[in-house]
Amino acid sequence: MKILLNPEKTIENQPLLIFDGACKFCNFWVKFVFKHDKKSVITFVHLQSIDLRDLVHQKDIEAFKNVDSVLFVDHGVIYTHMDAVKQILKSIHHPWRYGIFWIPNIIGHPLYNMIAAVRYNIFGKSESCMVIAPEMKNRFIADLK
After folding, report:
1. What is the pTM assigned to this prediction?
2. Are the CB atoms for 92 and 31 separated by under 8 Å?
3. For a designed S-S bond to 69, which of 29, 74, 77, 116 qualifies (C-beta 3.0 to 4.6 A apart)?
4. Sequential DSSP letters for 111-143
5. What does 66-126 look like in DSSP terms, one character per residue?
């Protein structure tokens, strides 16, 4: 799903990956993106440290009601679910982007939702958000509240 960012709200012009900081699976993938983002274009923020109502138009807030895993903001557009994964891989120029774009949304979105629904059961959940490694600190935004 793609939603336009509320133009009245200001965030960095760099792509922004918003993720569930308590999710061990999400934390693994954030470290993966950090490692493979050779141009350091993506910034990161924990989902727990933002208020989505501050990022989108009021009319679009309902679309984010059940988003609890990953969002990706790029060029004024907010991507969710599998669309976010595709855009992240595209942004870091990772070879997987070629394969994942061939997965049709009719398969990709349910697959994403299935993994998101069981991620805590399989990979675990931290009591608090991920501790940011020193080499990653300059790419993290403390909060957007």
Report:
1. 0.80
2. no
3. 116
4. HHHHHHHHHHHHH-B-SSPPPPPGGGGGGB-S-
5. T--SEEEEETTEEEEHHHHHHHHHHHTT-THHHHHTTS-HHHHHHHHHHHHHHHHHHH-B-
